[in-house]
Amino acid sequence: MTDENLPRRRFLRGEFLRTLQSERTALQGFQGVRPPWAKANQTFIDACTRCGDCVAACETHILIQGEGGFPEIDFQRGECTFCEKCVSACSASVFRPTNEMPWQHKADIGENCLTRQNVACRSCQDCCESRAIRFTLALGRVAAPTIDESACNGCGACIRSCPVAAIKLSYPEE
Ligand code: SF4
Ligand code: SF4
Ligand code: SF4
Predict the structure, then answer these.
(1) CA nearest neighbour of 132 among 104, 109, 102, 162
(2) Ligand 3 atom 6: residue of nearest CA
(3) What is the pLDDT of residue 166?
(4) Please, are residues 130 and 152 in contact by the beta-carbon 8 Å criterion?
(5) Ligand 2 pocket list (CB less than 6 A)
(6) Is 1.25.40 the CATH classification of the domain at 1-96?
(7) Residue whose CA lies nearest to ligand 1 atom number 8
(8) Hey, where are the domains in the chain?
């Protein structure tokens, strides 16, 4: 490829990255998710060197180098086990103490959940180790899930388990 094609190449790469970003945003919620225990986003971005050490350390490979090379979680790859390896691998001042809550977000079940169409499904409940997903019986309908927000730790295990991508993240300010 010649030099005069470079701007177009950069444009297409930018478009491609934007497509990936928007797909992840659509699947997970309104924004990318920083690693667990990350400080506030602007503080995180100011201090993160984009070295990628946390990405390499992540035992479930859910950390990726996202937009701008900053680490993001992709829950389509799996769940967070809260192993803290990302925190240990990082030499920058971007993480909070690990005795605090790892995240603010919680899982949220959307209207396209199969049970809303009266189709029985319990895939999400089966993968939730925190037992935060409860199924409630209703007369003449299949049991439907609700999330106990006080029990949900935001691990993301339920997101990939849903066959119709009905589970997203919700944030307290929404
Ligand atoms: S706590 Fe462990 S599993 Fe979770 S993002 Fe960090 S390295 Fe990955
Ligand atoms: S290890 Fe720390 S500085 Fe390096 S990319 Fe991860 S969060 Fe940023
Ligand atoms: S995010 Fe984790 S803890 Fe929360 S409901 Fe889903 S599987 Fe359970």
Answers:
(1) 109
(2) 158
(3) 96
(4) yes
(5) 48-54, 71, 89-90, 92, 94
(6) no
(7) 58
(8) 1-96, 104-174
Q: Specify the ligand 2 atom closest to the Cα of 57.
A: 1
- pLDDT, one tens digit per residue, over 119-164 is 999 999 999 999 999 999 888 899 999 999 999 999 999 999 999 9
Kindly report, residue by residue over 22-70, the tens digit of the pLDDT. Answer: 555 555 444 679 999 999 999 999 999 999 999 999 999 999 999 889 9
The residues, any chain, with a CB within 8 Å of residue 68's CB and separated by 6 or more, are 45, 50
Query: Which residue has its alpha carbon closest to ligand 2 atom 2?
Result: 90
C-alpha span between 45 and 29 (Å, rounded):
20
CATH 3.30.70.100 correct for 104-174:
no
> 157 CB under 6 A from ligand 1?
no
